Every structure is written in structure tokens, then in C-alpha cells.
Amino acid sequence: MVATGFGAGYSPVAPGTAGSLVGLALFWPLSRLSAAVQVTALVAVSFIGVAAATDLAQRLGLHDPGLVVVDEVAGIWASLLFVPWSAATAAVGFLLFRVMDVVKPYPARQLESLPRGWGIMADDLMAGLYANLTLRLIRMAWPLP
Predict the structure, then answer these.
(1) Rounded Cα gap, residues 119 and 126, in angstroms
(2) Cis (ω within 30 of 0) for the bond into 107?
(3) Could you say which of 4, 21, 56, 142 has the lowest number of CB atoms within 10 Å?
(4) pLDDT tens profile 1-29
(5) Is this prediction's pTM over 0.90?
(6) Closest Cα to residue 22, out of 38, 2, 5, 10?
(7) Closest by CA position to 112, among listed 131, 91, 126
(8) pLDDT one-digit tens code per residue, 87-105
């Protein structure tokens, strides 16, 4: 359940996007809590995600199975950390994360080569960091509601 984002990874179309949507829904209640709680939750999900991703990837005999989307959950959370929550910031953060997750700017793609679940998780966390920084720049240029 953890590795597949409560089953989102079984989506026949765009499981990564489905996992990101689950992550967005799960972050919404977190967005009302302190930054310390949000960071703690992200760290916890990341470590639990590494273990779950490692286990499922080993059982399937694949390096990074598309079924594993807990990395998208953690990545979208990283995209929205320390950013005031609104429908607009959530939507823009979601779109930016999906773009960064697909494009995987340096060094995100290289992080995929880390062993086991670390490679599965790390590239999406880096994509989330890039999305977060880009979202902050956008908010400086065009304040979002």
C-alpha cells in the first residue's frame, strides 16, 4: 500500500501522475500544520518510502517499477514545503513537479543510479526541490492567490 501510493501505482494511465495526485491530497491537511511537522512528515515518508520501494522492486525483480509511486508522494510534498497553500499554488506546484519529474534536470537523473529504494526516491525528491524553487520564483514575479 505504501509503495503504490494506496493503489495509485496500479493506474493503467500515468501512474506517476496518479501518485502525485494522491500526494497532493495527502499534503492538503499537512499544509495547515507547522513547517516542522511538514518536514518531519516528509522525512518519515521518504525513509518509509525507501524501504517500501526497495521491497516491492526486489519482489518484482525490477530496478524502478512504475507501480512504485511513493516517490511521487514525497516529491510533491517537497514541491510544496514552505509555500503558502492555496488552490493556485497547489496547481502550479503540481504541474511544476510533474514537469521536473519527467525532465529530471541534473542531478535528478543521476540520482536514479543510487542503490535500491534510494535511487527510486532521490530523483523525485530532487525534482520536488526544483519545482519548489521554481514555484517560489513564479510567486515573486506573479503573486498567486
Answers:
(1) 11
(2) yes
(3) 142
(4) 999 999 999 999 999 999 999 999 999 99
(5) yes
(6) 5
(7) 126
(8) 999 999 999 999 999 999 9
